[in-house]
Amino acid sequence: MEKVALSLIMPGLNEEENVERAVRRAFGVLERLTDEFEIIVIDDGSTDRTGEIADSLAAEDPRIRVIHNERNLNYGVSLARGIRAARCEWIFHNGMDLPLAPEDLDRFIPLFGESDLIAARRLNRTAHSPWRKITSWGNHLLLRILFRPQTADLNFVQFYRRSFVQSLELLATSPASVTAELILRAERTGARVREVAVEFRRRESGSGHFGRPKDIFWTLRDMLRLRFVTLFRGWS
């Protein structure tokens, strides 16, 4: 298997129960897969020990970097910030609860040579709470109505070729809209998009922060804005 340079972005809010375990597990897999990698931990304004633990991990190895948001900016903004800071040829993201098992990374690497963006497609969503299932279904339906994407799963883990993704100027900022806009822009501008089906892993500890009412309205605003702007200005 050809080795490639990988940047992993891990945003998190109040993930002191997960951050060390997640970073060490991801680090071990990346060290096995490639000689060049980095892990960018983004402490998204946490009020617990997430940032402190992340800093101690970064002190152990220069391939672990930490970005501290002074206040909570949300997953979408943090992800965009991590993308801008990434240095390796390929960039991907994962939550600190590891919804994508790091051991599944070797399923994506064979597609890097023929892709600009690779989306992980969840085989099922049984790991979601009932509320998350409802909000996820509503989000999926609206995206289909407004944009008719070819890609099945627009809101899970994705892999980006750095030369492609760092050239984009995104409109979205909400937690559920940034990854969707990245895929939609890739599809509309002729980038090579692939999908890989994977298991969706259940959170083992800590609490998730997706699906809050304010985030739902924020996402709806981003969707409508993107539809309006691209209708008149196009996607490039």
Question: What tags apply to this protein structure?
Answer:
236 residues, Spore Coat Polysaccharide Biosynthesis Protein SpsA, Chain A, seven-stranded mixed sheet, 7 strands
**CATH superfamily placement:** Spore Coat Polysaccharide Biosynthesis Protein SpsA, Chain A
Question: In the CATH hierarchy, what is the class?
Answer: Alpha Beta
Poorly predicted runs are none
Outline, from the CA principal axes? globular
CATH architecture: Alpha-Beta Complex
What would a concise description of this structure say?
With 236 residues, the chain is α/β, with parallel strands linked by helices. It has a single domain (6-233), classed as Spore Coat Polysaccharide Biosynthesis Protein SpsA, Chain A. The protein is built from seven helices and seven strands; from the N terminus they run βαβαβαββαβααβα.
Give an account of the 3D structure.
This protein has a seven-stranded mixed beta sheet with strand order 3-2-1-4-6-5-7, with helices on both faces. Helix 4 (130-147) runs parallel beside helix 7. It contains seven helices and seven strands; from the N terminus they run E-H-E-H-E-H-E-E-H-E-H-H-E-H. The model has no long low-confidence stretch (mean pLDDT 92). The radius of gyration is 17 Å and the shape is globular. It has one domain: Spore Coat Polysaccharide Biosynthesis Protein SpsA, Chain A (Alpha-Beta Complex). It is 39% helix and 17% strand. With 236 residues, the chain is of the alpha/beta class.
